[in-house]
Amino acid sequence: GSLYVSEYFSQSAQKLSFYSWYGNAKLFHFHVPEDTVLLRWLLQASRGKGPECTSMEITVHFRHGAPPVINPLGTRFPANATVRPSYNISITLSSAVQNTTFVNVTTPAAGDWFIAAHLPEAAGRIEVKGFSTPCPYMFQADMFVLRLTDMPVLEPGVPTPHTVVLPAKPLHVKVFVPKHASGMRFQLSSCVTSEQRACTVRVLLGSITLPQSFQRSLTCTGSINCSLALDSPPWEKWLQITVESLGTANASVSLEMLASFTVCRPGSTSSFLSFISLNQSQAGARPGAAGSTAPAAGEAPRNASGQRGSCLQSQPVVREDLDVVSVRYRLLNGPSVPVSSLSPTLLLLNLNTGMDSGGSLVVNLLLNKTSVSLANATVVACVSAASPVLSLNATRNCSTAFSQGYPLSVSTSSGEAMLIVLYPQTDDWFLSLQLLCPRGQGDCGSAEARVTVFAYLTPCFNDCGPYGQCSLLRRHGYLYAGCSCKAGWGGWSCTDDTKAQTVGAQNLATLLLTLSNLMFLPAIAVAVYRYYLVEASVYTYTMFFSTFYHACDQPGVAVMCIMDYDTLQYCDFLGSVVSIWVTILCMARVKKILKYVLFVLGTLLIAMSLQLDRRGVWNMMGPCLFALVIMVTAWVHHGAKRRHCYPSSWKRWVFYLLPGITLAFIAISVYAFMETNENYYYTHSIWHVLVACSVAFLLPPRDKHKKPWAWSQKLTCRYQICQNDREELYAVT
């Protein structure tokens, strides 16, 4: 009997995120071994137990060969991108804290398999770290495979007898498809049961791939021959064949199988000569080299034209790796390739390294219209994986035995065509081109067109455009890219302008966020007038860096960065927290030497904590609370010493302190609970205005022995009257 081996693969759980772009989807990458007959996914989802955790629906996408191309937000893809919907399931976490789901795939395709999981669309609310505790939703994917260790091999052209022992135990065999196979014919004959009755079997050719599966099915009844022809089977791969008995439970089935291939021999001498000429030309600058390369380079087209009898013309292509998920394909015979009507021109685009599926494959065709001798002639092309399409006519629809390719065409009326394949599966990709002539033109066989081919792999198409940022994402050792859009733009490559901000709205947002910082000018004036020069310096620093940080932080075109973004952000955060720190300490009315020590020491500690965690809520709340404790202690001390409330003036409370405290609380509420991605530009501007106004109200009056800014104390003889600047504990009026 057959020997089955079970294997188990697991990856660590990941915390799920609400979806706003592809980086929010958590990716799992598995490798399915050859000869796998059953694949079972174990999907485990769980959530926290706190009151903030509610019912949630988790979407899980599957794909073979590359990460799944998903569109949970229903946005538009780039104009020339052909997208096929992903296969997905939903897992609901309602009252149960944990959910376990199984997904079975019989006869799965070997190679890379990817799972992507995410939560529903993000609400867009800006969460302040520490003010709210988000519910953790965890997801883990494990993989079980059942593998046949001794799968029988069909030898091409040799009839082989086999037996299906039980209907519950199907027969698995495999056959190797050679390179340049243009067709395959599978034949089943001599099918009888152990009871010498006519048998009924079902034959499945190929493996299951997701999101689309092109597994071919054939039902054979009786002892007559049963056959199936396949065009363009996958080159240099094992093709799995499964035979299931549909008869009685206890009867075994004997049958005979035959697999035969039609092999297409390419015209490849021209490729060899081009390769030789390339080597000689690059050997290059030595004497006599140029003269020896010229005949070889000129001989290649003549040799190619002499091979019109072959079934395809292969053009040599060099793969040039540029960077991570960045490849350029260079044609040795030049960017322009000859295309005839007798046989297709074939280009191999190698994407089988296992690290190429995380980008976008771009193929651009440009027809040289002067090279086409026939009017209304069309060059049809097909980009396909695993095997090329070798018969390019209108009825084939660019399909191979087990996959659907991507059609292209150029003509004298439309001379350019582009195709974008998002996350191309790991495989050998082929570009087939052939000239189609209008009916009634007899000289079609001698016609030739020249097409310029540009093909490359890029992390993000068009680098996500002006309103997006291309981010390189990583899952363990696997790298893939995604676009993070801004200014209301959306879509896979940030080309969807449905919710995009206009340039006027972008300018308005920039002006609001920057000019609202000018509300610090009254606070600076009040501080200078009352001799709080250190505080005024801090407010000036905060106003300057907050203005230019928000000018640099804008998502659209209205952007100006006077220095590095990270530096501007750090200085803005530092100035904001230090402004609150010095304001509250100034209100405490402690001795000058102690106040300045606290100023410097607090600023150093705030700088350290911001370096540790810039967005932590305690970086702001910690200094605020500590300064408030100092202020309350000082006020209690002053009140106890004077034996009345401090500050003692009711006007100070009614017209200054209470309005300032009210403005500060409103500002904190807006900052912590009201900001979203959509309203950020005006809610954060309100935060700037409220904080600046509260500072102007909260600053205490100047010392009584400090005279207003004036020149009356200066004498004409340039001597200055000195005064005793000693500390006094006086009542605040």
TrEMBL record:
Entries under InterPro entries matching the protein: EGF, NGX6/PGAP6/MYMK
Transmembrane regions listed in the UniProt entry: 508-532, 593-612, 618-637, 653-674, 680-699
Subcellular location: Cell membrane
Disulfide partners: C460-C470, C485-C494
GO cellular component: plasma membrane
Keywords per UniProt: Cell membrane, Disulfide bond, EGF-like domain, Membrane, Transmembrane, Transmembrane helix
Region Disordered: start-end pairs: 286-311
PROSITE patterns associated with the record: EGF_1 (PS00022), EGF_2 (PS01186), EGF_3 (PS50026)
Domain called EGF-like: residue spans: 456-495
Annotated Low complexity bias: 286-301
Superkingdom as given in the UniProt entry: Eukaryota
Membrane-protein topology: Multi-pass membrane protein
Family: Belongs to the TMEM8 family.
Protein name, entry field: TMM8A factor
Native species: Dicrurus megarhynchus
